[in-house]
Amino acid sequence: MVLLVDDQAFVAEFIRRQLVSEHDINFHYCINPVDAISTAEKIGPTVVLLDLVMPDIDGLMLCRQFRNHPTVCDLPVVMLSSTEDSVVKAQGFAAGANDYLVKPPDKIELIARLRYHSASYINKLQRDEAYRALRASQMRLEELNMELLQLANLDGLTGLANRRYFNERYSEEWARAVRTKKPIALIMSDVDRFKVFNDHYGHLGGDDCLKQVAATIKAAVGRPGDIVARYGGEEFIIALPNTSIEGAVCVAEKIRADVEQQAIPHPFSDISAHVTISLGVAAVIPQPGTDPATLIKQADQYLYQAKNTGRNRVQGAAFSPDDPVSVV
Q1: Band (328; pLDDT cuts 50, 70, 90)
Q2: Mean pLDDT for the stretch of residues 132-153
Q3: Active site positions, annotated
Q4: Looking at the structure, do residues 182 and 124 belong to the same domain, yes or no?
Q5: In this structure, are residues 280 and 296 in contact, taking their beta carbons and an 8 Å threshold?
Q6: SS3 of 261, please?
């Protein structure tokens, strides 16, 4: 569709007659330049013919307005003028015009230019639409990839990090602790008498119990950099970067107390009438060349001690000076 903006009706009639036999070209006329942009928004032309000299708003000013308006800024604008002055032409192009025709334009040239600019604009719209569709598809794919990545990193039952992801993150934090010479602590925990609980309440009841315990542990560990994971079965592990043994024991004791306060019934436990957990804690300032698994083994040993000394308790300490790591 062609939109002509010209204050002279006889010019509009001249252009209309040149285009009337071209069935693929729809012609629309706007006599008042003040209404040009609103008319363009309403009818959706694919090219604008714009007279250079008009009252109130001249063609140069109106062209700039088109270029600064968000909904019509990309419309091709062909300037119409009675002069072939190169300075005037340069002003038209500087204002944002795509083309320039001298009035009265030759019919063949006018039609050829209108078709060219109209086709270019339609192609641009199609490219933009295709790009938007492609971009939307890419963004959706990125979202799906992130969802898949999260699913790959999470334990399906509890929503905590899984063991594989924990090992990756823990190795990174261990390396950071080596570089910064800062402590790192681990807490390993185990639900007390969980087999008895599972035997009595069934697997669904056991699953619900693990979910509640996992949520309680997650809530008790507040820092974004801390890593909380299900390590296997009813066992959970927490890595606390830049944390001393004293700080880690405080976190572990909070976890123990919070789980006990959940008062999840466990009538067949010989420890308590409610679900409890045992926790082992270890901390260290790792030295270059040391194995991250050493701290896991140490925390596991303290967990074993917590179980053997009555359960529902926290056992832990920093490594001794004889170990190949520094005492925190």
Answers
A1: very low
A2: 83
A3: 234
A4: no
A5: no
A6: helix
